[in-house]
Amino acid sequence: MTGAVAAVPARRRRRDGWLDAWAVVRANRQAMLGVGILGVFLAIAVVGPFLAGPIDKTAANRPMLPPSPEHLFGTDRSGRDLFLTNVWATRISLLVGVVASLLCMSIGATLGIAAGYLGSGWDSWIMRITDFFYVLPTLVLALVLAAIVGPSLVNVILVITITSWPATARIIRSQTLTVRERMFVERARASGAGSLRIMRRQVLPNVFGLVLANTTLTIASAIFLETTLSFLGVGPRDTYSWGRILEESFAAGALSLGMWAWFVPPGVAVVLVVLAFTLVGSAFDEILDPRLRRRGIAADDTEPDAVIVPSGADPETRGG
Amino acid sequence: MALLEVRDLAVEFTLGDGRVARAVDGISFDVDAGEAVGLVGESGCGKTTTALAITRLLPANGRIAGGSVRLAGEEISSMAEAELRQRRWTDVSIIFQGAMNALNPVRRVGEQVAEPVLLHEPGLSGSAAMARVSELFQLVGISPERAREYPHQFSGGMRQRVMIAMALACRPRLVIGDEPTTALDVMVQAQILELLERLRVELGLALILITHDLAVVAETCDRAVVMYAGQLAETGTVTGLNERPLHPYSVRLLGSVPDITGERRLPEGIPGQPPSPEAPVTGCRFHPRCDHAMAICVTDVPAIRSFGEDHAVACHAVTEAGRLRSPDELPVLASATQVAAAAADGAEVVTEPMPGGADGGGAGMAA
């Protein structure tokens, strides 16, 4: 029966990994809340626009309507249905956040690991370049870029990426510095592995938890940044995002008119999504560290022969 | 021709302030195919550095300053990095000290054992590599199902077995065990040594065992190389060394192991501690701690002289006929009598301050 185990297909191994991860999320109430919120927003972003239909560009409705069963959030200055606009804005805001932070993480993680692992000359050069981008003021850069190439979705993503990756690179580099000194890196070198392979096979898995946890935080800040940029009017003019709805409500004086249904929904949406990503981010740390994973969670399918319960940590007696 | 020939190997480290420390100075020894050689000495006398130099894995501030390392007739010390990488693990592999740290905590052990296999046999499929892992696990006595577990799920002894499996992954001719049994309890130690011995015989491996434990050497090795402060003190067959140690350091090393069969006595220690390579001692490096120390020991480095087959020693107190004279026959220094007295009553001795003052001296060295 022994030899068969080695031939466990890769697919099953991967599925087990996902089941493990799900078990951790299930056991963590905060993570579950985060996943729940994200699930709702993701559903709205993916299928919402299909169900709700296109935003009425002809503005057939009367402008500035208060909320009603027909127009849940009322209408804006040009008579567009604000509920519909919010549904479409969810898609754009999430898209910008996810794409920008994925770009930012790939650049940041690659350069951070390279700088940390290769050290000396490489480290100095990469980190000086990082410092250069680090000190660029986000908003000024955004306004300049928008002036040069015109406001568009791609530009917003670009601006967010350019200004966010240096922070990631710095974090990943510092983690790499500690991993690099661990003995398994030397062991890998002893077995004939080159620098590229060590960075990919030894260092990356060890900093990956940080990369993912950081990604969720970067998504949150990217969405926040997108909202700010759109609010300042450098976002795309042909699509709606939460920031743009806020900007228009501000321009129309919705606050003084008491039209809360205009600016509260996008504001709440931003807060909820940012919160949800933060909650999920902390759970990721646990999912990716197999040592933390086993702690108190029955993710392992085999029953241990004996369980040693440290004094004071017995779940049965604690607090009883 | 021996499988591994080390000749006059010297390793230097450049320290932070630009000074150079010679950690290994003129070490020579051979390892024949299928032979087990023990590299013995106190902590900090250059054993691990020697091993790292053999595989050219010295840290960035270290370099081979002289001598040659030949593996199967090929010079390692001048080999191109790319070719060296090919040779690592297929010719020489290392069982690292402290198995927990040598395993990547976030990857399954099976993947880690398979990695060198995939690295050196690029055409191999993933499942073939995993089959090899199962084979290796069975060889070292781990049930193959455990390949999917993580290092933290293994006990210390089992982890060491994983390390051994990994060392054997590419079927090397020479395995270097860097204190493979430290931090393990005695029972597990015995099992691991037994395993190494069995594998050596079965697979015809040559083994270099780095240890400070003479019992381990006596049990598993054919020959031993005794190092002190980066230099060769004595080398010979294990039986030869046990029966007729010539260097006072070897004598004291043997004396510091409690004997369970003879009369009951306290093991003798070696007073003082090895000099730091940053502040080397003149003459014979052992002289501040030696009860045989003479005037010549302070000024002249003793030459390595051979006595009989496969027995060499570097000591001024050994006669041309190959006998270690006792302190009474020698014009020993005052410090030597002090050392002898201190060793006799087990008290701590304050050795004379080293030039440069890096070493305060004085910690009593029990076994």
Strand and helix order of chain A? HHHHHHHHHHHH
The major beta sheet of chain B can be summarized as: 8 strands, mixed
Q: What is the SS-derived class of chain B?
A: alpha/beta
Helicity of chain B, in percent? 25-40%
Principal-axes geometry of chain A comes out as globular
H and E string of chain B: EEEHEEHEHHHHEHEHEEHHHEEH
How would you sum up this structure, described in words?
The complex is a heterodimer of chains A (320) and B (367). Chain A has twelve helices and no strands. With 320 residues, chain A is mainly α. In chain A, helix 2 crosses helix 3, helix 3 (82-118) runs parallel beside helix 6 and helix 3 packs across helix 9 (242-251). Chain B is of the alpha/beta class and 367 residues long. Chain B has twelve helices and twelve strands. In chain B, the strands form two sheets. An eight-stranded mixed β-sheet of chain B has the order 6-7-8-3-9-10-12-11, with helices on both faces. The longest helix of chain B has 18 residues, at 186-203. The two termini of chain B are 37 Å apart. Mean pLDDT of chain B is 83; it is low at 349-367. The chains are: A mainly alpha (320), B alpha/beta (367). The A-B interface holds A 2-3, 5-8, 10, 13, 182-184, 186-194, 197, 201-202, 205-206, 208-209, 288-291, 294 and B 55, 57, 85-90, 93-94, 96, 98, 101-107, 110, 112, 115-116, 119-120, 126-127, 130-131, 133-134, 138, 143-145, 147-148, 150, 152-153, 166, 169-170.
